[in-house]
Amino acid sequence: MSMLPCRVLCLLAIVLCCVGVVHANAAAPAVLTGHEERIKEAQEKVKETLRLKEECEKVIKAAEDAAYAAQVFAVTTENNLETIAADPEKVEKTKSEGRKFIDNTTQAAERAKEVADQTTASAKETYDISVLFVGQEEEQMKAEEAAENAENAARAVKEAEDRAITYVKLVEEAIKKLDAAVVAAKEKEKEKQVEPQPQPQEQTNETSLPPTNATITNGITRNDGSSSPALLRVPLLLLLLLSVLGCMAVC
User: Which of 105, 41, 21, 43 is nearest to 70 (CA)?
Assistant: First the structure.
């Protein structure tokens, strides 16, 4: 009878050992599945970083195109301020085009900033999770390379954003100069309207006029002895002299 409890205990020990082994085997796949899940998430992050890097290239081109168009508009406007300011229709058309360039370039710059921020954050996360690829050298190198390329792309996007903002300011400055030119043109036109016009000279000095017939006649009259008082006295003297001579002859 004493052997029975020993056998029972042995059986219980065997059962417990079997249960422990089963639980250990069941727990191992769960740990492995969790690691694989993190690896999968890391791979998805690498793919997202690569996608953002490609997106950076697109927004760089869009920002540079918008900035170049804005630059051309600003330079062209400043080089033709007086011509544009003289035509009200051209003024309104130019200002309308300028506002469109400002809007388009600003939107391109904002989009560039958004993508640059997303790419920078994704690159950092990719660097951080690259350690999960321990023992998978190829995957780890791929993650690190993706992160580095993404960071470079984000910096290029930031530069494109800065250029776009710069040319937005140039367009705004060109429009301000155009407004100033319009004001100057209006002031100049007002000055022309109030400026006295020179009158034609209708009268001249008498000394500069050619002699008239009356002037010539008056001159002739004054030179005529019959009308001069001095000449009128000459015949009287002659008559008196003849009278004296006559008297002397008679005597």
Answer: 105
- What amino acid occupies position 18? C
Alpha-carbon span 120 to 44, nearest angstrom = 16
Total domains present in the chain: 1
In angstroms, the CA 220 to CA 206 distance is 19
* 132 inside domain: yes
**How far separated are the first and last CA of the chain, in Å rounded?**
233
SS3 labels along 207-244: HHCCCCHHHHHHHHHHHCHHHCHHHHHHHHHHHHHHHH
**Domain boundaries, position 53:** 34-192
Could you report the per-residue pLDDT of 40-78, keeping only the tens digit for each?
A: 888 899 999 999 999 999 999 999 999 999 999 999 999
Question: Can you give the pLDDT at residue 136?
Answer: 83
| Predicted pLDDT of residue 130 | 85
Query: Could you tell me where the beta strands, DSSP code E, fall in the chain?
Result: none
Is residue 197 situated within a structural domain? no
Does residue 13 come out as left (phi exceeding 0), alpha (psi in the -120 to 50 range) or beta? alpha
**pLDDT tens column, 162-200:** 999 999 999 999 999 999 999 998 888 888 877 666 665
Q: Is 196 helix (H, G, I), strand (E, B) or coil?
A: coil
Distance CA(71)–CA(77), nearest Å, equals: 10
pLDDT digits (tens, 9 = 90+) for 78-90: 999 999 999 999 9
